[in-house]
């Protein structure tokens, strides 16, 4: 039995499809939208429609853009010879927040996952290989997550890029700032040892 009018139920169902949103949060969001003044609700709906209609992928790095090239690829002051490979557009934001990395990116839009039936042709690996072949790339930084899928994706890309004779690096992983050694798992501690550097 439905507790709400069909349009409200549909709105709740749509919010519940969003990642990380459960049924109760979907209900809260739906009621929040219903409580908005009509103009604000229409502005919210317009923003979704406009983002969907006017957002594309950058032809160079595959990041989200509203033009042929994203702002990062258009910026000639950035290091044009280094490409940081990330799984998702939100990973670019994480790197940009550090204000340390000044190279370019390549967004895969996913990682290899045999269990999820995601193979090399389902993500933007072919475009990366073509880029390395066409551009004067000196280093590719593989910055996928340190989970099973991320590691498999990094290893696969590394093997594909070996023939180009460029530097291929992987992000160092280790103990988080503020962490205590007694709580760190063996794999993380091993990675921290492997990624140690001189002071």
Q: What do these coordinates show?
A:
Helix content is 44%, strand content 11%. The chain is of the alpha/beta class. It folds into two domains: 6-54, Helicase, Ruva Protein, domain 3, CATH 1.10.8.420; 57-193, Dna Topoisomerase Vi A Subunit, Chain: A, domain 2 (3-Layer(aba) Sandwich), CATH 3.40.1360.10. The strands form two sheets. A four-stranded parallel sheet has the order 4-3-5-6. The protein has a two-stranded antiparallel sheet with strand order 1-2. The protein is globular, with a radius of gyration of 21 Å.
Could you list some keywords that capture this structure?
199 residues, Helicase, Ruva Protein, domain 3, Dna Topoisomerase Vi A Subunit, Chain: A, domain 2, 2 domains, 4-stranded parallel beta sheet, 6 strands
